């Protein structure tokens, strides 16, 4: 009879069998219907799930982002969401960005994804033979890690960038042109941090909101089964139905109603 220690047996098993996918839980969850994974008790779990479900977008190079309104639709305690978002922001797990699509619109992106987005922009400019791209490294190392707010003043920006090297106004112009900063209209000496390449997606977000609301408002009772609605495609938005449903439910433009056949999505009257 052949002797084999438990540890040897385990080693052989690990060598012969493929390692389980670390993201398997998320991949399995993606297969569930929207109704089945609609609610979460934890903000970080919700963020990771929504990141995994972010729709692929043709012709736009952008990392996944989540809207704060989407979290409000899935984690019922808004105070908890705000508190946990603030904690994750201070721990430098994620960043929050003010969007131009509405006064209360904020996008959330995991910091690793944001760094990947900056790297993509830098490489694109490098391919265009742009010079003096060192400002992107200064921005990542000194500005992003030091300033956790959604905005930054001109003097603070120059001061933090100068930790990397001698700052010129051309450096700040390059960051603006790359889509990493946008000037505030009220105060031109203040900037919003921004997500590069997001412009066309935000246009689709606005149009998709209108299209979905119009679709429901045209129905007799301004409602539809969630399972049927999530299968529909929007013509005017690159974002999928799940993305828009979570957004509009969290912002209060839609609500869910229990029915014998499952959840109904209903337009809320103004």
TrEMBL record:
Q: Where is this region: Disordered?
A: 1-28
Q: Which Pfam families is this protein grouped with? A: Stk19
Q: Which residues form a coiled coil?
A: none
Comp. bias (Acidic residues): 18-28
At the top level, the lineage of the source is Eukaryota
Q: Which InterPro entries match?
A: STK19-like
Q: Which family does it belong to?
A: Belongs to the STK19 family.
Q: What is this protein called?
A: Serine/threonine-protein kinase 19
Annotated source species: Anisodus acutangulus
Q: What is the lineage of its organism?
A: Eukaryota, Viridiplantae, Streptophyta, Embryophyta, Tracheophyta
């Amino acid at each position: 009879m052949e002797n084999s220690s438990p540890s040897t047996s385990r080693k052989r098993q690990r060598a012969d069998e493929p390692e389980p996918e670390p993201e398997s839980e998320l991949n399995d969850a993606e297969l569930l219907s929207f109704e089945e994974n609609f609610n979460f008790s934890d903000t970080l779990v919700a963020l990771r799930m929504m990141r995994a479900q972010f729709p692929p977008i043709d012709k736009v190079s952008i990392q996944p982002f989540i809207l704060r309104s989407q979290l409000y639709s899935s984690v019922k305690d808004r105070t908890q969401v705000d508190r946990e978002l603030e904690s994750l922001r201070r721990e430098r797990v994620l960043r929050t960005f003010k969007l131009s699509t509405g006064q209360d619109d904020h996008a959330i992106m995991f910091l690793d994804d944001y760094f990947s987005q900056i790297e993509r922009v830098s490489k694109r400019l490098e391919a265009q033979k742009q010079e003096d791209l060192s400002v992107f490294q200064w921005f990542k190392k000194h500005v992003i890690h030091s300033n956790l707010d959604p905005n930054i003043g001109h003097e603070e920006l120059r001061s933090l960038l100068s930790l990397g090297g001698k700052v010129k106004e051309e450096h700040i112009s390059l960051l603006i042109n790359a889509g990493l900063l946008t000037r505030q209209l009220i105060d031109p000496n203040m900037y919003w941090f921004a997500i590069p390449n997001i412009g066309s997606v935000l246009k689709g977000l606005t149009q998709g909101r209108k299209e979905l609301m119009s679709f429901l408002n045209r129905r007799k009772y301004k409602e539809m089964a969630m399972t049927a609605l999530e299968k529909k495609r929007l013509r005017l938005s690159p974002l999928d139905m799940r993305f828009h449903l979570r957004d509009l439910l969290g912002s209060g433009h839609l609500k869910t109603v229990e029915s014998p056949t499952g959840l109904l999505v209903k337009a809320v009257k103004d």
